[in-house]
Structures are given as structure tokens and as C-alpha cells.
Amino acid sequence: MSGHAAPVHITARSAGFVHDVWSIALRAIRQLPRDVETTGPALAIPLFFLIINVGSLQDIAGFTSIEIDYKAFQLPVAIVFAVTGVSRAPALVLDIQGGYFDRLMLTPVSRRALLLGHMVADFVLVVVLVIPVVVLGFVIGVRFPTGPLGVLMFVFIGACWGVAYTGIPYAIALKTGNPGAVNSSFLLFFPFAFVTSSFVPLENMTGWLGTAAEYNPVTYLLEGLRSLFVGWDAAALGKSFLAIAALGAISQTMAFLALRGRVARG
Amino acid sequence: MSAIRAEGLVRRFGDVTAVDGVDLEVSEGEIYGFLGPNGAGKSTVVRMLCTLLLPTAGRARVGGLDVVDDAHEVRFSIGVALQDAALDDRMTGREILTTQGRLFGLHKGEIAQRIEELGPILEVDALDRLVGTYSGGMKRRLDLATSLIHNPSVLFLDEPTTGLDPPSRLRVWDEVRRLNRDFGMTVFLTTQYLEEADELAGRVGIINNGTLVAEGTPGELKRSIGTDVVLAELDRDHDRAVEILRSVEGVAQVDHFGDEVVIATSNGSATLSPVALALDRAGIVVTQLSLRTPTLDDVFLEVTGTRFEGGDQ
Fold first, then answer.
1. How far is B36 from chain A (nearest CA, A)?
2. Domain range spanning residue B202?
3. Domains of chain A by residue range
């Protein structure tokens, strides 16, 4: 074990914030194909919902004010199911439980980069999950009058929503360090997923359901995504980005507060 | 300058005081052994010194920097291998080393060079395998290599050989000696193995119930309780034997632990016969009488009143 001289010129130095984020992201992205058990169900569920919802509810479309094909009407719902709650938070819990998080904490890495790096990987993941859903949409006959740019915008909005939501599972992961709690974070989304215009347009919803849907950010997300099947509608897109920003502000604040608690050395 | 200096370090967890006013001074280039049984407070001290945990009271400096106020700067100069190998089973060995190197600002070429230099510790052939497939010993060595990727000047090793087989343990010992000898690296090593502290450390601190109870070179500590130890095993009458032996000429100290009566003396061979005679005259039956040089276990017994209950085999 002897006879190897270490060069003295190699010493630690600050890598910089962007480099830190990218280093953490690179590690997380590399692990994506190794965690098929996480990505597999995340892809199967939206594809399942798209086929079932279209098959079972297509005929009621005629009784509503839906102006687009019902398959196109449902595609955004599938996208939202594909990207919501999908994150590297379960992997973060494993890092905490296995001690690797401590290993990272012993480096001079920016603490915010620990979270942002994972979110970069999440963005890659949700884009990867959105693409097969969009492809299935094309296969069943959904078309974008807004052209390729509309498709890109559709994927981009979906991915932004997915990343905005990740703050919730990360907050739970960092607060509890418990994989069960993280896995249940998707349940928090259920009321938002169903008390909205998932099946019929907002104007066809009445009573308390209609009122609740008006305050649900998912409603505006869906309307923004659906607008791309009609034409470029700046107002609808603007509202969907506002909905994403509102969700992101809340969930990411929760996540970064939880991160602060986790790294507080208390 | 001291590589590590702690003054009145205290850490409480609720009502429990895990570390209670520890003072330490470790010189640059020294191997310091921090010895204590499970739950003594060793790991808590390490976690405070390596910036993972805030002290409840007291101060500590590593490399001249305060571990609370200058925590970020401290991290550039320390390498830490925690008690449980802090690795990710879903990464390969090379990925872990590369990620670690990047976070310490090392470039691609520098990381490759360091991996090559750390080859003696690593199983180079296994570097591209997932860590989940590694044996316990391989994980430990990868953990050590990971903590060395950025050439730290102070290395904290928290029970680095716990759970390792004897050949792996010797390999880690050799590497610790080499790092200290060739690069002047300061090593702060916690252990529950008396032999490990004896073999590796220039100085040893003994911690028990969160308090530093003794400190010195292994030789100094052993000499502090006498040059030799006479050990008498009895079935009964231990307390009476202790009383009788205290008045025997040449006996410096007598303690009783379990079936053993431990007699510290400056001249073992000269004291052996008087001890045997005194016990025989008192009608106390001795099942075994032996003479040996003191161990750190005897030191621990001397300063705490109990035998060391660490992991020595």
C-alpha cells in the first residue's frame, strides 16, 4: 500500500454554485435509468387514465361545451398525472437514511444546490415522461394546430408544473426522512386533480364543485394546455404559467425551509 | 499551530449530555486516537469537529478555523470517514469519487489522477461496479478513498475498522500510517479497539460518558498505572483480597473487577511472590496468578473504575 506519492498541487477549492448544481444534477440524472421502479408506474398511470377516460367519457363530450376533440381534451389530464409528484425525493430519502447526505454535507457544496440539482434531474425526468404520453396522443389522433412549437410549449408547461410540484415531496422527504411519507405525497394532489375541469369544462361545472374548481390552479393549467389545441392564446397560457408560479412559490418555499431545517446542524 | 483545538466542548440532546466539556489539542501531523466504549461520545465529538453538528457550548477550531463560524472554510481542509460508510449503493465507485471530487472543485484530470493515486486503497477492478455489490471491507476502503479525494490536511476517521476482517483492518492501518508519514496528514481517529489506538496513535484520549478521562501517549498512560500488572483470579473474597494487598510492599494500586484483582506495581517479578504469600496466609484461594505489562484496558479501568467494554477481540 505504499510507494504512491500524492501531488501536493491538487487541493480543494470552491467549485461555484452553478457547478455544484450541475454536479448534483449529473449524479441524479445518471441514476434515473437505475430507478425504473419509480419511473415505470409514473408512466403507466397516465397512459392508463388517458385510454380509460377517453374510452368511457368520450360520448358525454357532446353534452358539454367542449370545443375540441375529447382525446385532446383528455391529453393534458394525462400529462398532469404523468408529471405531478414525480421527483427524486425518494432517492433523497435513501441518501438521508444511508448517510450519503452527510457525505455531501461534509463537502463545501452549496446547500441550495443539493435541492436544485435534484430538481434539474426532475425536469429531465418529467420531460422524459411527457414524451410517451404525447406520442400516444398522436397515435390516437390528437393534433396540434399550433404546430411543433405548440408541442414544445405543451411539453414545457407540463414539465414546469411537474418541477413546481416537486417542492412538496422534497419538503416531506427533508422534514421526515421517511420513504412512506414521501410516497404518499401524491395523495395530496388527488383533490386538486379531481376538483377541476378534468372531465368537463369549467363552465359546465356547477355548485360547490364549480366554485372550488375556479380556485384550483390545476384548472388554469389544463385550460392553458388545452388552448394549444385551438391556437395561440396568450391569456390562457399566461394563466397557466401563473398557476405554476403560485404552486411553485408555495411548494418550493416549503422545500427550502425543510432543507434549512435539515442542514441546520442542530 | 494546532490542527485541532477544542475548549469545553459540550453537546446536549434534550436532557441527555452526550459530550460534557471536552478539551482537546491535536498538533499538525499527529495521529490522535480517541478511545472509548460505545456511547461514550466519540462520534458526537467528531460530528462537531467536522461541522455536521453544532456544539451546545464550547468552541473548536480545525486548521485554525472555527467549526461554527467558519464551517464552510473548514470543509475544504478536512476529510471525514464516518462510522457507517456514507456511500450510495446505486452509484459505482468511480461515480462516487468523481462526484466528490467535483464538489471539491477538482477538474476531470485531477480527479482521474487522484483515483489513480488512491488505487492502493481501492479495488480498482471494482470501480465501475455498483457499490451495492461491494463487500463491507470494499465499502469501507471506498469511503476512506472518498474522504481523501481532495487531499485534506486533517483526516477524521470514526471507527474506520469496525466490522472489518483482520486483513482489511491491517490494510486500513497501513494506509493511515502512510498518509501520516508521507504527507504529514493529521489524523483524528476514534476507535473502540484498544489495540488500534495502541498501534496507530501517537497520543490517546480516553473518553467515557462524554468526558475526557485520560490523555497521553500509550506508553505514558500505561506507565501512569505502574510498570507491570499482576492479575489474580479469585472465586471469592475479592474485597478482602484488595484490603490485604494494599499493604503488600511494592504494590502501587489494587482494583477489583469481576473475578479479577488487578495489582499495579513498578516491579512485577519482585511483587509476584509477596502477593501470592499474602493471599495464601489470608486463606484466600487463587485460581490463577499472572504477570503482564499494562494495557490501555488497565488504564481505562484505572480512570473509570470499570473494564473497557469496547469491541476488542
1. 23
2. 2-216
3. 17-54+65-262
